[in-house]
Please model this.
Amino acid sequence: MPRPRSRSCARDRAGGNADETRPAFASARAGFEYRLLTDLETPAELADTFGWYAVEGNFAYAPASSRYFHVAAELTPQAVARTVARYLTASPAVVTLVRARPAATPKPS
Model:
């Protein structure tokens, strides 16, 4: 398992030289928006997406909404670095599932 990066490392890497980061970040953001658009293939899929987010109480956050694209367009490398440092650099949780043994069935007498 790869070792998680420290918060400072994530911040340092994403905050690097602005002249080097800007074109790569713009390219990544364009790829993200393209992926969102290609996921909206049919009216039924679009309705399904809006329906799901409406039921969850987050209609404005639906990936198909214009607000979502507006927020994505305003992302900066620094904002992404802060989010990565906050949510993606902690040590991962490991969960081990153990199959329960079936209860003994009493034999009829």
User: Anything to note?
Assistant: Residues 18-38 form the longest helix (21 residues). The chain has a mean pLDDT of 75.
